[in-house]
Design goal:
Elements: E1 2-6, E2 14-17, E3 19-20, E4 27-37, H1 39-46, E5 55-56, E6 61-68, E7 80-83, E8 113-115, E9 118-122, E10 132-136, E11 140-142, H2 149-152, H3 158-170, E12 177-181, H4 187-196, E13 201-206, H5 209-218, E14 222-225, H6 231-237, E15 244-249, H7 254-263, E16 264-272, H8 287-291, E17 295-298, H9 306-318, E18 328-333, H10 337-345, E19 351-355
Helix pairs in contact: 3-4, 6-7
This protein binds adenosine-5-diphosphoribose and zinc ion (ZN) (2 copies).
């Protein structure tokens, strides 16, 4: 089966014919329908990260179960599934406490991909830039058959991370003032999460006007181009001089993380959703934590429980309460993955999707 392999950092992905193991006990094979292209994948191409190469990237996938191994009870062939990324062992310290987004499994997944006698790793145990994948049954979430699978792939990362940051992590209350810095594939979902939560003002910040227009379509009430205006000053001016109740940083840049923290009012909460570089440092005034009672908060995978949250998000979409189609600006074939990365970096797309079926 075909997959996109990263052999060396800062080089293009290579489309290869790979061997995929048949699903073993507790594993399922999924024929992928689509995979969203997330900036986190590109981070591993451009940055030095702990991810071991060679690797098949992609972590925002959905598809149809094509085979199941022994003892699989959660799904059967033909089921429509969204694939949750990262280990989801169900038994570790974090899983038993209801925090599968921090799962730290006792044993890593077995190798499932190879090219001849070379083992190829699966990014985040899922590897969705491929025609098929084999994953633990704990990583698949069965969804209703009438939901369009291609756009539902976005629920595997961007939608859940963005909406989850608002609803699960920060628990934004109706009437809140919310600032969102970085309105790309994930940040746009923070915007629609804030709308879902009943925020009064949703202030979107980006350096590109086309991204700000996407944000308006997702529910932003105010737009700030950070190249042209001072973000902290504008955020305060729009909130009676106080600052916002909640700020979300959705880029992974120490400078904008600080901007988020500076933009919240006394007692406000800044949430870091973006993934910073491994070697990045951040300096800030800790005295604000006491004198201004401000919170600086981290957020992984929207603090989500995929088995609970994915079907809910699908229902919200099917009832017209959240938007998915509007997020997809362009669709690509698997062998256009490097072009999809380029388009994302150039800011041309809200989200790109690889069509894999
Ligand atoms: N100020 C404001 N906006 C910025 C700035 C800045 N200094 N720098 C970049 N941006 C905007 C880009 O213009 C783009 O719209 O941030 C957005 C990032 O969006 P995407 O490239 O689509 O990335 P996305 O997939 O949303 O991921 C964002 O979240 O999950 C993490 O790893 C992911 O760190 C990444 C972040
Ligand atoms: Zn992602
Ligand atoms: Zn676990």
């Amino acid at each position: 089966m075909k997959a996109a392999v990263l052999y060396e950092r800062r080089t293009p992905l290579v489309i290869e014919d790979l061997d995929l193991v048949p699903p073993g006990p507790g594993e399922v094979e999924v024929r992928l329908v689509a995979s969203g292209v997330c900036h986190s994948d590109l981070h591993h191409v451009q940055r030095d990260t702990p991810t071991v190469l060679p690797v098949v990237l992609g972590h925002e996938g959905a598809g149809v179960v094509s085979a199941v191994g022994a003892n699989v009870t959660r799904v059967k062939p033909g089921d429509h599934v969204i694939i949750a990324f990262g280990a989801k062992c169900g038994e570790c310290f974090y899983c038993v406490r209801g925090m599968p987004y921090l799962c730290t499994p006792a044993n890593p997944a077995r190798p499932r991909l190879a090219r001849g006698n070379q083992t190829i790793n699966q990014f985040l145990e899922v590897a969705t830039y491929a025609e098929r994948t084999v994953v633990s049954e704990k990583n698949v979430v069965k969804i209703r058959d009438d939901a369009p699978l291609a756009v539902c792939s976005l629920i595997a990362c961007g939608v859940t991370t963005g909406i989850g940051a608002v609803i699960n992590t920060a628990k934004v209350e109706p009437g809140s003032n919310v600032l969102v810095i970085g309105t790309g594939g994930v940040g746009l979902n923070v915007v629609q999460g804030a709308r879902l939560a009943g925020a009064a003002r949703i202030i979107a910040v980006d350096v590109r006007d086309n991204k700000l227009e996407f944000a308006r379509a997702m529910g932003a009430t105010h737009l700030i181009n950070a190249e042209k205006e001072d973000v902290v000053e504008r955020a305060k001016a729009l909130t009676g001089g106080y600052g916002v109740d909640y700020a979300f940083e959705v880029i992974g840049n120490p400078k904008t993380i600080l901007q988020a923290y500076e933009s919240v009012r006394k007692g406000g909460v800044a949430v870091v959703v973006g993934v910073a570089d491994e070697n990045a440092d951040l300096t800030f005034k800790p005295v604000w934590m006491m004198r201004q009672a401000k919170t600086l908060m981290g957020c992984a995978y929207g603090s989500s429980r995929p088995q609970v949250d994915f079907p809910k998000l699908v229902d919200l979409y099917m009832e017209g309460r959240i938007k998915l189609d509007e997020l997809v600006t362009r669709r690509f074939a698997l062998d256009e993955i490097n072009e999809a990365f380029r388009a994302m970096e150039a800011g041309e797309v809200a989200r790109g999707i690889l069509d894999l079926a």
